[in-house]
Amino acid sequence: MVVAGLASVAAAYVAFTAGWLRLRLFTSGDDTDRTQKHGYVLECNVAHRRLLPADAAHAFAYRTLMLLVSLTALESCTLDVGRGWLFGYGGALARLTGLRPAAYLDSSARSGSGSRSIKDKLLDVLAEQGHARDVLGDAWMLTMPSYLGFEGINPLTTYYCYDTAGRLFAVVLEVHNTFGERHVYVLDREKAEQCPTSSGGSSRLRWTISKVFHVSPFNNRGGDYCMTISELSHPPPTNDSEKLRDTLPPLPYVSIHLRHQVEPSDSALPTLVATLSATESHSLTAPNLLRSLARQPFVLLLSLLRILYEAWVLHYVKRLDVYGRPDPKPARPAWAAAAGGSASGDQPSRGVGWQPPSWFEQYAHDLVCAFLARRSDELGVRITLVAGNPGEPDIVFSPIRDQAGAPHREELTIWYLSPLFFSTMVMAPSIDHALLLGYHTERMFIPSSEALFLSVFNSSTSSADEDPQHTLALAQSLRSRALPRELLGSPFTIPRTHPLDPSSFSLLRRARHVTYIAASLAEEAVARWLYTCVRARFVPGHEPWLRWQRAVETVRDTPTPSSSGAGAGATG
Q1: Radius of gyration of the chain from Cα atoms?
Q2: Is residue 465 part of a domain?
Q3: Which PANTHER family match (predicted)?
Q4: What pLDDT, in 10s, does the model give residues 472-528?
Q5: Number of separate domains in the chain
Q6: CA-to-CA dists, residue 311 to 50, 53, 216, 303, 305, angstroms
Q7: DSSP assignments along 484-536, one per residue
Q8: Are 423 and 311 contained in the same domain?
């Protein structure tokens, strides 16, 4: 497969380098006029330097290819080159290079990201930071396009946002990580520090902002970013932009310093410095695009391979340990109050792309929701599940008498970070264990009331109690094997059956349920085995498979009350 892929790339390379002089057969004659000043092909230098810890210092640099395009021109298809075959908007397939809306900004199904334009989603991001939707006139978008249908990881996409008068008022950085997650940082022009430049080029702006998104496994999620970004030579043109005719082509510059003050002596040094600087800028035309690709025919295919190679150097050569991937910080304003201000909703940044649930998380989601629908009606409690992902709608369970107009007695709200909440509820052998691990230790969810949470989930009646085949008892046995001995005795009681186990009398359904639990445990065991095989080393205390051991430490440090004495009331 790899050889065939390289062969197809080589064939395409030969085709466009040998035949680019005949491009008039495939392009309209006014390509240059239509794209002049609205889009550019950029050849860029990218450099990374790790300075701390000193014994893991490392540096590398490479050249890459990027596009700088006006969003208005892009989405009107004004920038399509070669009738959309060489470059086009709206998809990655059946064209040499392209951009599509679903690959950028909000990726949730709730937002309809598959059909919404990039500019429309950018307006949402700006509006959340207090910028009216009618302020944005146009924006430059600096990014890497798809290539031969392949859409690689785009580590950084930068949006330079201009008002209707052509003044820069914000810069939006969209960061992607290798886990398929996305995050945006919104930098307000009025809050920037003006930086002098020794070369006399474009003025540079500087911001300092908290790091809240997990990008590299070699850094934790703490610290600050110091971001320096050059202003571009001109805004995206409008119909009356004759004054731009003699302006120089833009050469973007982005520098990011990550600072972790590990020790007082380290305070003057950044942990990491990353820079992106454009060295050449040409109008986005067929000859310019193909000429740039001919110089670097494989460059757009190498982003992920470069990341993996440099990670290998840092881990195995420089002996730098890795951090486990944390769940993205919540991007819902309600989380700020629930989690003591830990949400990113009050920060100029938030998550815009989240991992989809795994097969088991989706299965657990369905089990939990079916259970809560029944318990809501039995107890007369209104239950609301609020995801950290703003693209996920709230899940509300109201008792039937509440729906008929009678007042409900109590309300329970559960804020959860990710679908891992559902699988944790199903895989913990008791609800007390789930509360210990998910809330007190890993903080993956927060109940508005611990007492009500335990009352709702500790169902005293279930048809699962009649289990002549002992299949559900087997499920509990499997769950318990994952726990340290310290969590198998008092004050934690493991019931014979789990309240979230299926209430169906069907032996087939129960057997399937036990099989799913066993498969989930096997999946975790295989993942740990693979880490061992490749000799991966985690920062002590961050190993994914030691979360129950971390729960033991929580019990030792701050003993958690059992369900019999858990009437602690609301938690914040």
Answers
A1: 27
A2: no
A3: OS07G0153300 PROTEIN
A4: 688 999 999 989 999 998 788 888 889 999 876 678 888 999 999 999 999 999 999
A5: 2
A6: 12, 15, 9, 12, 10
A7: -GGGSSTT----SS-TTS-----HHHHHHHHHHHHHHHHHHHHHHHHHHHTT-
A8: no
